[in-house]
Amino acid sequence: MPNFIQFNQVSRWFESASGRFDALKNINLHIAQGNHVAIAGKSGSGKSTLLNMLTGIDHPSQGTVRINSTDVHALNESALAGWRGKNVGIVFQFFQLIPTLTVKENILLAMDFVNVIPGRERAKRVGALLAQVGISQQTDKLPVALSGGEQQRAAIARALANDPPILVADEPTGNLDSKTTEIILNLFTELVGTGKTVIVVTHEKVAYVEYDRIITLKDGMIVDDTGRSRTQ
Amino acid sequence: MHIKSPLLGGVARSAGVGYINTTMNIKFRKVTGDLRVNPGRIILVIFALVIGLWGVGSILVSYAILNRDLNENYTRTNPLHAAITSKDFKRLDLTALRNRPEIEKAEFRDFATLRIETHPGEWIPLWLFGVGDFNTFSLARIYNQNGSGGPITPEAGAMLVERDGLRFSNLKAGPPARVRAGGRVVNVPVAGIGFDPAQAPGTQDHLIYAYVDNKTYSKITGEAANQRLIIRFKNAKTKQEVQAAADGLIDYFKTLGIAADTVKIPKFMEHPHQWQLNTLLFMEGSIGFLAFFLGAVLVSQLIAAILAGQIRQIGILKAIGASRFQVFQIYLMMALALGVMSGMIAIPLAVKSGYAYACFVANILNFEVLTTSLPHYMYIYLMASGLLLPVLLSLPAILKGTRIPVREALNDYGINQDAGVKKSKLLDKMRLPVNLALAFENTMRRKKRLAVTVAAMSLGVAIFNTGFNVQQSLKDLLSDVNNSMKHDVQVVLINQISKEEALKYFSGIGNIRRIETWNGGRGAMQNMVVSTDDGVGIIALPYNSDLLTFRSIKGRWLSGPAEPEIVMNQEAAVLYGNPPVGGYHTLSVRGKQLKAKLAGIVEEFEKPKIYMAQEQYDALANPDHYVNSLMFVARDKGYGKVMALKRDIEKAIEPSSLQVLYVMMQAERVKIIYDHLRIILVTIVFLAMLVLVVSAIGMASATSINIMERTREIGVLRAIGATPEIIYNLFVAEGMIVSIASIFIGLFFSWPLSIVASRFFGNLMLEVELHYSFSKTGFVITLIATLIFGWIASRIPAQRAVSVSTREALSYE
């Protein structure tokens, strides 16, 4: 399977009053399309920085990031926004729904920004997405009226709004109980089944998830890359 | 290979469902939702915008009305270009004159300065006009009391009184008024009330205007009618052109054997009190601009605060695919929504208050507001400023907020933890209580915001205090006017008579220390009696009179009776092109000339005047040693006693044959000047107060932003044991530190600002450079007002800060 995501010699460092801090060091990483990948590591290992490179939220200090034939590292902020909207759906640990919009409106807003879904098809698609994540009854509620698990499912529906080929989740179950965690992670597995590339940042291993790869980071470097293995 | 989601395929087959939620709808829903999140702050923003728009809108509306209507009131009277008096006009064929090519209109309008009793025993000047025909007159028109049509025609023997005179007199339509003409008192029925917008307001000049027909005029004054001709020239565009046309007319009259006695050319097509209006409009404009500027700072701060609270959301929006422009659109829409909301409140208020202010000024200046509906462009201006104001002001904050990279936006947790980490060594040395030291440290954390807040508040304090200082300068000027003349009552006669004849009627009056006799007097009217040939008033007095103590601008006072010397007031000096002190000036009086040394220039709030020794004037033009001014000095200078003296003088005059121009107490004269300035003094302080209020709102908003940014910190403080009272006091202390800093800086800058403003307003209003005066009352009021405003401005957000629970504060992002 061709390399869908390619990191070549990617480093990211930050300058601060206390000196230079290397968050990522010479990362070489290739991920195939349709893979279900876990990025693991302790706090401060560079997981989130790696994720930021994947989503175009941050630029590498050195090296190149090529995703689906696009040199993401070379795009400016404006081009990145458009690229991200079409190619990457992001799920955050704290859900990050717009609190003043209903669930439906949160999803519609993402569609509006990217404008790849024709206007007259959007409402129908919202209904289908919410049905897929299992919260059809919550369509017109504000995020505050939903449980944590429901909010995260709404956030996943929003991430899928523009049908991106890549779904990236940053510790998506970090704030959820075990039962809800299972529902969310199973949802990701189902999405992999539809052809999405799903990359999940996690610091916990769960028995019931089958990842194609588990990449472990430590001090900004890949220290383990287990391919096609079932986690125990 | 990318596999197309079945979801997308499934959706693509249906059409037309839910398209109601258009792009703008969703974005607008977000905007309205965001605006509802923190109603307190949004109310503050709208309040600030309403204040700014209301102020600016009121200024625009009143400016448009006043600027147009005073001029319109004046010009629709068809004002005269020139007035010529002659006793030979009986030789004039008025029809032939009107047919001359340079004449647009010409009529007889006789004029006499008499006196009228406004209250029992109180007499003030009466300007009596003789009108040829009340039905056909077309020059210097007057109107009925409401200004809506022509005046009623008074029956023979009766007069119309100008409406402004009713405010300070007992005169009313019906009962007769007592008019003193020369040595006679005549009872003249008041037939009705008229309105003459071309005259200076009678309330300010303390005189009454009245209008009678020709026969009645002759009957009252004892003078023949048709001795004063008023004229408008065709195609005259400047005073110089009027002067040239008048000179030509005088030559024409000479060919007819008509000798002109006087030629008076008023300011060209300008209301006598246009200067007051100009001053008011300028003040409105300049202080309104400052209030607008402060409002601008405030609004931009508030919009920045809203954006500061939304940085993480901006990060999320960008993370889910929003471009910078799309985020920009959302916040631009928010600014527009704020503009629309505040405009809906402010514009109707601005129209109403603009009209109200215009009516207030029109009432004081005695003219009618003619504008019944504002021009359409005014509404366009108002709406444009309503919409553009928040958009333009929030643009920098929006651009900055939307420019922030996604990673930074997603990591935003309010105030930077390293902000203000540098501890002040000075504070360390001061060993302040921990709470106060923390308040100081916190105040210094956002240095840029602190600088803007203190600068805005200091500007407010500086302007507020300057308002009081300028007011004090004007009061000091009035005090100087009062002190410069030591007499208590002045009697000015229309004609010059012998000293003995003038004094003989007053010998029996008590409370008189002495009476000094002069030639000449005060004000413009006196210039008609004793003046140079070019119309500058002369005051010929004992050179060593102790009744005058002017502030000297240059040179010295008169040194003696022997040398031909003169002293000018600054108005005369300006008129003659600031001649050098010590140089020689040629006076021309009744055709005779005197070359006199200019000994000095004195400061005097008066018409142009020249002072010279009585002996010199008598030698030049007064061989009979006549006088026309009696300066009474009272033994007891108490106000009541001087009033009684004035009444006694009036009683003495009543049976006499003296032809009196006016009898005036020095205190009344000061009051006349004060009445001219009152509206300006009130407006200065009112507008300065507006600036201070806007500044205080700015401070409240800055404190509110500080508190919002530090919500999580408040949670930490409470978690480690700080009571709500401690936190409340902390924020109030921070507000008071800003207030005190602003007071110091503002008061410091009010000093040079007051010097400049006093000079500027003095020149604008009085053509006198006012001296800087420090207003103690203003200082105390500024101090108290700023501290109270500062306390309120920090108290409200501080109360909100302590109302948040510890849990909510700690979980704040």
| CATH class category of chain A | Alpha Beta
Radius of gyration of chain A: 17 Å
Q: How many β-strands of chain A, per DSSP? A: 10
The largest sheet of chain B has its strands arranged as: 2-3-8-5-7-6
Q: What does the radius of gyration of chain B come to?
A: 35 Å
Mean pLDDT of chain A: 86
Mass-distribution shape of chain B: elongated
Low-confidence parts of chain A lasting 5 or more residues at pLDDT below 50?
A: none
Summarize the structure.
The complex is a heterodimer of chains A (232) and B (813). Chain A has helices at residues 47-55, 77-87, 103-114, 122-133, 148-159, 178-193; strands spanning 3-16, 19-32, 36-41, 62-67, 70-71, 88-91, 166-170, 197-202, 210-218, 221-230.
Describe the structure.
- The complex is a heterodimer of chains A (about 230) and B (about 800).
- Chain A has about 230 residues and is an alpha/beta fold.
- Chain A has one domain (about 35-60, about 75-230): Rossmann fold (3-Layer(aba) Sandwich), CATH 3.40.50.
- Helix content of chain A is about 30%, strand content about 35%.
- Chain A has helices spanning about 45-55, 75-85, 105-115, 120-135, 150-160, 180-195; strands spanning about 5-15, 20-30, 35-40, 60-65, 70, 90, 165-170, 195-200, 210-220, 220-230.
- Chain A has a six-stranded mixed beta sheet, sandwiched between helices.
- The longest helix of chain A has 16 residues, at about 180-195.
- The model of chain A has no long low-confidence stretch (mean pLDDT about 85).
- Residues about 1-20 and about 415-420 of chain B have low confidence and may be disordered.
- The longest helix of chain B is centred in the C-terminal third of the chain and has 44 residues, at about 665-710.
- The two termini of chain B are about 40 Å apart.
- Helix content of chain B is about 55%, strand content about 15%.
- Chain B is an alpha+beta fold.
- Chains A and B meet through helix 2, helix 3 and helix 4 of A and helix 1, helix 2, helix 9, helix 10 and helix 12 of B.
